[in-house]
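Dear colleague,

Thank you for sharing your sequence with our group. We've completed the structure prediction you requested, and as agreed, I am returning the results in plain text so they can be pasted directly into your records. Please verify that the sequence below matches your submission; if there's any discrepancy, let me know and we will rerun it promptly.
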Amino acid sequence: MSEPILELRGINKSFGAVHVLHDVDFTVRAGEVTALVGDNGAGKSTLVKCIAGIHPTDSGEVLFDGRQVSIHGPKDAADLGIEVVYQDLALCDNLDIVQNMFLGRERGKAGVLDEADMEQAARRTLASLSVRTVKSVRTPVAALSGGQRQTVAIAKAVLWDSKVVLLDEPTAALGVAQTRQVLDLVRRLAEQGLGVVLISHNMNDVFEVADRIACLYLGRMAAELPTKDVSHSQVVELITAGRSGDLGIARPDMAAV
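Please find the predicted structure tokens below.
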């Protein structure tokens, strides 16, 4: 088992009177895919946004590479090497692949863009991920399929020497063939030594690519354990009831939100 690259300890987050995250512990290890699963309203998105620096935590510790860090905004997360690929992908249809990958981080001198350098870096990144479905990095995003768009969004995230990549429902709107491409890409990210967090409702995807599964239930971490040590039905029970046999929360707080 590899050393944790990202650790969350005792994370709490409230929005007014609503306590969304309750003393959540969460670990991401380099070279592994950790699936973060839970029902709607379990707190998955809030936890991801706390990691990404969008929401400040109320209490708890965040450790990165073994040292305690403070994440006050998205720039702090990006500087550490944490990138998030949201479900809407945040791509601009009117721009090509290169322009999207460097959007807001363009390279150049004296106000002149270095198009050749950016194009070469985009090609190199896609090649390192063994992406063969994109014929030209100058193809407008509007002309890409759903799977190709997801691939571009993931490549954009790893372009910046990231160490942890969080993927929010990457296969939600994809067909069978495109889902296969994205899942293969997720595994390649882990094989390159990145810590990958996969947020998904699709249990088949989770059990296929995840090394560990973390189950959130009403804002509490019900269990976090190796995929090989848990069954499909146990994960469903942890998601829906917070407990499965000896696993999970002793007394789920039914009043939690």
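Summary note from our side: Residues 252-257 have pLDDT under 50 and may be disordered.

Kind regards,
the structure core
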